[in-house]
Amino acid sequence: KWQEQRGNISLAMLEVLTQGDIYSGFTFVLGFSLVFRTSQSYLRYWTAATSVFEMGCEWSDSCASILAFSTISKFPHHDVLVFRHTMVRLFSLLHGMALEELANGEADWEFPLLDIEGMCKERLMVLTSGLAQGRKVQVVLSWIKAYITQMMDCGLLNVPPPILTRVFQELAAGLVSYHQAQAIVIWPFPFPYTQLNLILIQVYTIITPLVI
């Protein structure tokens, strides 16, 4: 008002915005926009959190199943032990790669892995190469499936195939949950809607003192 009295600005153009009905309508639009924005952000947060936990549950249960199936193997104990240790390390690597991909390099901590030095050096080189960037989960998952198939073929895993199929189903279910969480990471909240909220808030901040 002081600036208007000095002739520096004119508030006449704002009279339309400061009318009661128009201001109330504008406030309603702003409130609706913010509530919708908050609800969608809340939904995205819990969808991502739930998907990550479901991913871990599916893969841990798959690993537990494959270890349980190996207890009835007729192979020497040493061979079965090597298989079980390898499977646990592969599943640990799978979960670690999934968390790393979801963090998108922005995490302030390192995800723990179970005895990563016990893995084949050639495989680790594949994961660190540029070709595996963004596809580390799929690469490790293919290793797990191939290793299980090889152990079935050689007879170390002698459970009926229909029962063993559950392991692959849980692997696939975990991958689906991973992609659901990854979709939220890749696709942020729509930029135009975010900018609309910012503009509405700025306009509200400017005209509210004039109305009051």
UniProtKB/TrEMBL annotation:
GO MF annotations, alphabetized: chloride channel activity
Compartments in which it is found: Membrane
Statement: the UniProt record of this protein carries the keyword tRNA-binding: no
Keyword Transport: yes
Any GO CC annotation of this UniProt entry: membrane
Membrane topology qualifier: Multi-pass membrane protein
Keywords: Ion transport, Membrane, Transmembrane, Transmembrane helix, Transport
Pfam families documented for this protein: Bestrophin_2 (PF25539)
UniProt cross-references to PANTHER family, sorted A to Z: PTHR33281:SF20, UPF0187 PROTEIN YNEE
Entry protein name: Uncharacterized protein
Organism: Alexandrium catenella (Red tide dinoflagellate)
